[in-house]
Amino acid sequence: MTNIAVTTWSLEQTAPTDLLPAAAPEGDVRIVRAEVPSPEFSRFLYASVGGDIRWTDRLGWSHARWREHLERPGVETWVAYDRGTPAGYVELTPGDDGVVEIEYFGLIPAFRGRRIGGHLLSCGTARAWDLAERWPGLATTKRVWLHTCSKDGAYAMDNYQRRGFRLFDTKVEEEPEVATPGPWPGAFPA
Questions:
Q1: Distance from the CA of 144 to the CA of which of 17, 61, 78, 156 falls in 20 to 30 A?
Q2: Gene3D superfamilies of this UniProt entry (predicted)?
Q3: Is residue 90 within 8 Å of residue 102, measured between CB atoms?
Q4: Contact (Cβ atoms closer than 8 angstroms) between residue 155 and residue 106
């Protein structure tokens, strides 16, 4: 098996005022919280958004593992809809001491390049900052962070920085090169 060098960048905001919101795209684009934990829907979003950029770490999760994750207090999934069709999502995962990770963020390939991503990231980041307001018992958010890597879309880093995220760590690691799984086997050419 061939290995590839993958660069991972970690970025953060340390105050709500760091957020530089993008303008809302034209048309009927809505960002809605998926309030009912649904392993089926979350796996659909994960596979559909990450299938062409080699998101594979959750593909082997069982239904029970998905449910366990989604039912953790404070885990939220915010979904972008373009005229009623799911276009992408952002998943928020609280950590200790008021730290919230934007664990997953992205758009289904057909919806990229329509100015939805900046708007979705802006809304998701704002919801990370006010997460404790919806979840009694969680600490007030003091830091929002995320990571992106060289396997992600060409505009990912630019979008994060334009929304006010600042780089705080860079790592380069060798990873096995895996085939692009697509949202279902064989959806994308290898």
A1: 61
A2: 3.40.630.30
A3: yes
A4: no
Q: Count CB neighbours of 17 within 10 A.
A: 9
User: Cα-Cα-Cα-Cα dihedral of 68, 71, 76, 81, to 10°?
Assistant: 80
Instruction: For residues 42 and 57, give the distance between their C-alpha atoms in angstroms, rounded to a whole number.
Output: 14
Alpha-helical segments (H) within the chain: 39-50, 63-70, 116-129, 131-134, 156-162
Which range of 47-51, 74-78, 112-116, 172-176 scores highest in mean pLDDT? It is 74-78
The tokens for 148 are 């992106």
Residue 126, amino acid: A
| Residue 189: Cβ-neighbour burial (10 angstroms; 0-12, 13-18, 19+) | exposed
Residue type, 18: D
Distance CA 129, CA 144 (A): 7
pLDDT at residue 189 is higher than 70: no
CA distance 117 to 87: 9
* pLDDT exceeds 80 at position 182: no
SS3 132: helix
Phi, psi of 168 (to 5 degrees): -130, -10
Q: Tell me the whole-structure pTM to 2 decimals.
A: 0.93
> Tokens at residue 134, please?
């919806």
